Amino acid sequence: MAFFSKKTESVPTEVDFSRLPKHIAIIMDGNGRWAKKRSRPRTVGHAAGAENFRTIATYCKEIGIDYLTVYAFSTENWKRPADEVGAIMGLLKKYLLEAIGQMERDRVKMEFFGDLSLLAPELRELCERTREISRHYEGCQVNICLNYGGRDELVRAAQAFAQDCIDGRADPNHLSQEQFGGYLFSKGIPDPDLVIRPSGELRLSNFLLWQSAYAEFYFTDVLWPDFSKEELHRAIASYQNRNRRFGGV
Ligand code: FPP
Prior knowledge:
Bound molecules: farnesyl diphosphate
Low-confidence stretches: none
Strand order of the largest sheet: 1-7-6-2-3-5-4
Order of helices and strands: EEHHEHEHEHHEEH
Distance between the termini: 15 Å
Number of strands: 7
Largest sheet: 7 strands, parallel
Strand content: 5-15%
Structural class: alpha/beta
């Protein structure tokens, strides 16, 4: 069931911290409009969005969310002007450098969903280093979707499965959903319980298509840089008021 509130203030914020979603996924949308409202370049909006990501990721860890997955750059985002793409990549680089510096203290496990081969070598190397250093950390896991597309992920999975069939490692007549899930970037990670999209858009935009099959959705017109801890509480409270049946009664 989708949820959309124009009057966000009217949505309750009381969260039951003993029943939190295990996995929250966020489409960090609205940075451009946030900047436009302030007559600033779009890149300023992305910088504010990156700052808010830090705040929300830290808070998710503090309250005990096990997995946080964020959509940072899609397979379609390359169509944006080069300076905007460059600014987003620069923000990611800055974030990863800081994260590496604080990893011993934060102990957040970092993963990346997407085809990293198209990234600049320096950024790709930072992603790989971050993943490697944090590999054994337990607690919150942050997955950054980077050059990620849900359809691209499914096509890659189908190709890898077909190759395994050709090589005799898999049998096309025996493929379970669990087995297919093992070919996705999200291998080994539980599906998101709650998918949040700020900024008023009511679509998935190629985000976690397979994994969102039974997710609860929360939409709000608040723009991502303004999506505060209180907004997160609203999203979680809304999630906690749903009746999840997973196709049952
Ligand atoms: C969507 O808003 C946002 C993006 C495509 C980029 C998101 C990137 C960041 C928040 C910065 C880097 C991330 C990390 C993890 C450090 P939009 O530009 O489509 O906004 P609009 O719809 O208002 O134009």
